[in-house]
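dumping these here so i dont lose them again. two proteins, back to back, each one seq then structure tokens. dont judge the mess
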Amino acid sequence: QVQLVGSGGGLVQPGGSLRLSCVASGFSMEDFAIGWFRQAPGKEREGVSCISNGYGSTYYADSVKGRFIISRDNAKKTVYLQMNSLKPEDTAVYSCAAARTLTIVTMKREYDYWGQGTQVTVSS
């Protein structure tokens, strides 16, 4: 059974940090690009970051560039999203997803598997 389990969300003050984890099971994660998306109340789901497997290429949305870092550990079947200098506008439900390709994927429709979300709230 294919599963992506995201965790690590929580409540943090502006300027703080959180690290999200996405653990994969039921498929060969090394053959997939892994992305993180977020959805704030009343807004569409947007792509935040993606990491390929071919050469470990990464993509970041402009809104998080320089603050977030995505990484993967295929041996642990885990992808991480380190989020630093968090802002209130980063508040959203964050979900990870897997696309059967070795390249960067930015379009939601290209993803094959989705995990459940984890809530991130940035507030003082």
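---- next one ----
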Amino acid sequence: QVQLVASGGGLVQAGGSLRLSCAAPGRTFSSYAMGWFRNTVGKERDLVAAISRSGGSTYYADSVKGRFTVSRDNANDTVYLQMNNLKPEDTAVYYCAGKNTYYTGSYYLSGYDYWGQGTRVTVSS
């Protein structure tokens, strides 16, 4: 089982940047494809970005393409979400999630097995 601990959220002005981190200490981190989701008030939890086990394949929601970058450091059991040019509509609680998979080059849009506790991002206009 993987425990996920997300951090890095906060308050930022529109146009600013934040980097979220999700630590998953343990020998099995590299066995998991990872994703970042977000929850906004009144909406379902949406996938923002996803990354394969190897880090070589990534996915971005249309709303964040060109602004957000997902990456991972398997040596340090951590996945990141670099968020640039933030907009007020990016305000949400962000969650990292992990999916145990055999395939090293695949990212996933759903079916995640483990979830972090969430970190809040607030973007002021």
